[in-house]
Amino acid sequence: MASPYNVLITGTSGFIGGSLLADLLSRTDGPIKNAKIFAAARSDEQVESVSKLGINVLQIDLMDEKSVLNAVLKNEIDIIVHTAGAILPQMATNLIKSLGERRRASGTETHYIHTSVATMFSEEGGWPYGQVKDSDDSILEKEKEIGEANPINVLVAELGKAEGVTTYNVPVPTVYGRGTGEWRKLSVNIPAITRASMKLKTVYKFEKDGHPPAIHISDLTALYAAILEKIILKETIPSGEKGYYFAMAHKSPWWEVMERLAQSMHARGLVSEPTAKVWPSYEVAAEHTGFPLIFIRAIGTSNGDLVPVNGPKIGWQPKWTEKMYLDSIDDEVQAVLDLDTVKMTLWDSL
User: Fold this and answer.
1) Each residue of 53-62: pLDDT tens digit?
2) Which domains does the chain have, with CATH numbers?
3) In this protein, which residues make up the domain named 3-beta hydroxysteroid dehydrogenase/isomerase (predicted)?
């Protein structure tokens, strides 16, 4: 029997959203193949590009409440996977409220899968509580205690509850690998450092080593798909204030990553030395990588002791390991050389 669900993916011209769309459309069996997939895009050019996939592409200004509401109601959207500008509260508000209106108008259940930032759960990102499992019942309450540091996660859970929309939160860490979407195929972090290194003829690292969580893009899209499958099958899984799904496959040992990056780039003649030096300051790092100064310390030196429980509980098992990641750094450099045709920022990926 065909699934009644209409699924809208935002950010489909971006790295994560585009790769997720490609993943979902490639599935020839399972519950997702029966869902009707819609893609959201911003510009005429992006709409034209994504439309080549033969699906319904909606040109929506996610910051415009009426635009979002009209798109959700007209196309009877039941599930939204939000990967575009997901750190912007207004977008989340518009999407969740529109799903609330859809639920009230149709009487059907509606679901919202939010993409947030895993760095929020590191000491450098404002998380003072140490190790955290995504199955911990107290995450949301702790985020409320933190206050302004993590407002988006609180907003998603509380507004979803108020609107009768079932919400899920996927905190995303460092993502690597080549994307499979139609528009942006490069990740953010390593390409930004690679570009800066090419410009400066030197690979730089921060004075403090970090071991943040990381994930390959294919493992990330598989997590979204696992959540979607459970929703379509009407199975009860953690949601709302308990609906966190840490998208972590392994750690990223930053100093070692930078050394491998330096070796790879030096072998190509892109930098002058095969070893990494320390950034002169956070200000210089922010200027050359393009990351906002307010976030550069957390991006470059964070750790974060995240333990994914809910994802594996619903059947998600990442395939990429830390060793595979480190061994792929040369491929990351090549990807920048092959694919760096569209300027990428932190905000584009989220």
Assistant:
1) 888 899 999 9
2) 6-174+215-242 (3.40.50.720), 185-211+252-303+318-349 (no CATH)
3) 8-87
